[in-house]
Amino acid sequence: MAKFFGNLHLVLVAGLILAFGVMFSVHGADEVTAQAVTRWLHTFFGIVWIGLLYYFNFVQIPTMPKIPAELKPGVSKHIAPAALFFFRWGAALTVLTGLIVAVLAGYAHQAFTLQSPFKLIGVGMWLAVIMAFNVWFIIWPNQKKALGIVEADDATKAKAATTAMMTSRLNTMLSIPMLYCMVSANGG
């Protein structure tokens, strides 16, 4: 069992198989639609994305100043880059699957143009798009500099770390109303 649970990929595949097993056994093949599967994937990727956003802001950022200098490379060279990989792809896949759900359900245009009765989900969608933009075009480029993934001098690294942190905190702030919109628009 330790070998199985020690392999994240096997655990994820098993979880996916179990999820489909639950879907088909509870709902039957007729009710398991592309929209239902996409909505579930949207929720999964959203949990990955926002879970890592909260990890960075609630755990990693406040803890880094307390870590002895000789231990910081363990975080900056190994943990942070791995977490940022799942963070940015979680953001991209959350937005992509959310757009697919909106298109399949037929409300994408009305939501993006903030028309009733899709105004609330539309606000949530716009907040998510802004947050994903921040992840890919502000946080990630600056984290690459701050973590030494790309070449930068010490002053540039420090400025990049501050920019990434402030944008991450902005995303944390925006995530709160975004989550309200997403949950409440679907009957919360």
From TrEMBL:
Pfam families: Urate_ox_N (PF06181)
Keywords, alphabetical: Membrane, Transmembrane, Transmembrane helix
Keyword Membrane on entry: yes
Species of origin: Sphingorhabdus contaminans
Name of the protein described by the UniProt record: Urate oxidase N-terminal domain-containing protein
Annotated ranges, domain Urate oxidase N-terminal: 90-185
InterPro entries the UniProt entry points to: UCP032086, Urate_ox_N
Chain ranges passing through the membrane: 38-58, 79-108, 120-139
Taxonomy of the source species: Bacteria, Pseudomonadati, Pseudomonadota, Alphaproteobacteria, Sphingomonadales
Presence of keyword Zinc-finger: no
